Amino acid sequence: MALTGRTALVSALGALFVGFVLPSWLGILAVQLTLLIAILCDLALAAPVRKLQFTRTGDTTVRLTGEAHTHLTLTNPDRRPLRAQVRDAWPPSSFHPGTDIPASRHALRVPAGERRRLTTTLRPTRRGDHHAVRVTVRSYGPLGLAARQGNHLVPWTLRVLPPFTSRKHLPAKLARLRELDGRTSLLTRGEGTEFDSLRDYTHGDDTRSIDWRATARRQDLAVRTWRPERDRRILLVLETGRTSAGRVGDVPRLDASMDAALLLGALAARAGDRVDLLAYDRRVRASVQGRAARDVLPALTEALAPLEPELVEADARGLAATIHRRTSRRSLIVLFTGLDAAPVEEALLPVLPSLTQRNELIVAAVADPRIEEMAAGRHTPQAVYAAAAAEQTRAARRRTADRLRHHGITVIDSTPSHLAPDLADAYLTLKATGRL
Fold it and tell me: For position 134, what pLDDT does the model report?
């Protein structure tokens, strides 16, 4: 039972009335007795909370920073009308801080035998699965002096997907892909090209592309043209160890890697390539395999949504072994990891020969834009020291990247806003040069 502010008001008015009629102790006793009777009657007339029935409908997925609506239908099977305050409780990260929490509280009246639908608007601030906590109902009597209160568990899960902010780059990358695939043919053959057509030789063409048999038949110089092959294998590998938990700006490095992986996955699927995903630290955290082109982006998004960094050192040998089991033929492996010297030199470099022996490898790393800002500062003694530290950090990353390139690896070291388009450009360059 819950008492309300009206109870105190009734008590004060009763004391004022009987104070002029009865002795003080009799007046106080009469007020208390009257108030108690009024509260008990009000409580008896309040609709019971336990009998209420609930069902849920609404959104089950939403992108981070988006808006979702969940609907809670409340049915009152009792003969007494329901006057209530209802709170549909969700985790704090389901609401925008400081502004949307009141949106989960609702005041309503439900006549006997009827139902009402309540809508709660959620604006999540974190990826992953958000679960409804409980529904709390406070049922008031007709006088509002007392209330019944109880909780109900009405399960519902809202999956918050990665925001995919790099989607804005997709039209431009697709336009360049169309130029490679059909509109512009290659004059030189690479490992990832197939024969397209013959055309007349023009000044400046590579003489290695001349087809001498066709030239003899036509009695005019003819050159072969090639086009990038389809159905190539792309394996996106996200290293989810402790280095991926470091924050760059407002987001973890893992989230920036996810955004780049989604753009590359969407682009490669449109190019006709097969796209798989592997998230690994000491064991497989997420996996996508064998999806059709139209299902690749939804599958990647669903798999990445609940993924979180693990505060453990990644097992490079276990990762390499898992990659070998999943790549039965030549593939492009895109490894999202850090460029910290110690993990790369001690763990990654020893397993690189086995990965690059039959595969094309790209290492994509998230650079901190704050380092560039610090390196440009010279206005105070403290800024000079910060600039020196930033230069030292940049030099270490360059040395690590150079060691990787020495093994024939393409290294993309970009800030979060540039990583996705830079990685897409590297993929298109491999297609254009026939290396994929």
Answer: 93
Residue 177 lies in a domain: no
Q: In the sheet that 128-131 helps form, which strands lie side by side, from edge to edge?
A: 61-63, 157-161, 128-131
Distance between CA atoms of residues 9 and 14, nearest Å:
9
Residue 320 corresponds to which tokens in the numbers above? 């390499």
pLDDT digits (tens, 9 = 90+) for 148-199: 899 999 999 999 999 999 999 999 999 888 877 654 444 454 444 554 566 6
CA distance 211 to 217: 10
Question: Is 188 among the domain residues?
Answer: no
Shared-domain flag, residues 109 and 246: no
Read off the pTM. Answer: 0.80
Distance CA 258, CA 164 (A): 8
Flag whether 300 is in a domain. yes
Does residue 390 lie in a domain region? yes
- Phi then psi dihedrals of residue 141, to 5 deg: -80, 175
- Do 221 and 339 share a domain, yes or no? no
Cα separation, 189 vs 434, in Å, equals 7
